[in-house]
Design a protein that fits this description.
CATH topology: Four Helix Bundle (Hemerythrin (Met), subunit A)
Order of helices and strands: HHHHHH
Number of strands: 0
CATH class: Mainly Alpha
Helix content: over 70%
CATH superfamily: Cytochrome c oxidase, subunit III, four-helix bundle
Distance between the termini: 49 Å
Number of helices: 6
Structural class: mainly alpha
CATH architecture: Up-down Bundle
Strand content: under 5%
Shape: elongated
Number of domains: 1
Length: about 190
């Protein structure tokens, strides 16, 4: 196991560029959630009625799925640091499966909303719902793509580059979790 130096404490896992991206993404989603809150103050009854049209069960299951997937990604990074590529690759595969399950559940939820006419033009709440959740879904898809690439890299060989790439992928995946943890209560529970 590599011994940590003083400079390691100032160098975030995955590198500084992924953390710049994470901060920018959190600012973007945060600004959209603030705008949603401002809009909701103007018409709280309509926002409450529209929020009740969401299926809390779908949101709750997807929250558990993403958190579990993030847990497996954390295990993968930790296991890779210990030099166990095979086990790390398996954990990454579990994280990827969580991403796919999230996308499938979200697709079922979207189909239900469209079938009932709750599209982006239904009202202001659903404009925010669709924009925020679709933007998040794009992040999930990108994350699954990144994790898939990592899976094959980790299976091939262990190296400092593979470890750093895995930490970068894990950081991105945890950002996806965090964004969902912001979206879920605001969209599904608060209004």
């Amino acid at each position: 196991m590599k011994e940590q130096s003083a400079s390691d404490f100032f160098y975030p896992p995955g590198g500084i560029l992924i953390w710049i991206l994470i901060v920018l993404e959190l600012i973007t989603f945060g600004a959209a959630l603030i705008a949603l809150g401002v809009q909701a103050r103007h018409n709280p009854e309509a926002f409450h009625a529209s929020s009740r049209l969401l299926n809390t069960w779908f949101g709750t299951v997807n929250t558990v799925v993403l958190l579990t997937s993030g847990y497996f990604m954390a295990l993968a990074a930790g296991t890779l640091k210990k030099g166990n590529n095979r086990k790390a690759a398996r954990y990454i595969l579990y994280a990827i499966a969580g991403g796919w399950i999230f996308m499938i559940i979200k697709s079922i939820e979207y189909a239900s909303k469209i079938r009932h006419g709750y599209t982006i033009g239904y009202d202001t709440f659903f404009q925010y719902y669709w924009l925020l959740t679709l933007f998040h879904l794009i992040h999930v898809m990108v994350g699954v793509g990144l994790l898939t690439g990592l899976y094959f890299s980790v299976r091939k060989a262990a190296s400092a580059v593979v470890l750093e790439n895995t930490e970068t992928g894990a950081s991105f995946w945890h950002m996806v979790d965090l964004i969902w943890l912001l979206l879920f209560p605001v969209l599904y529970l608060i209004f």
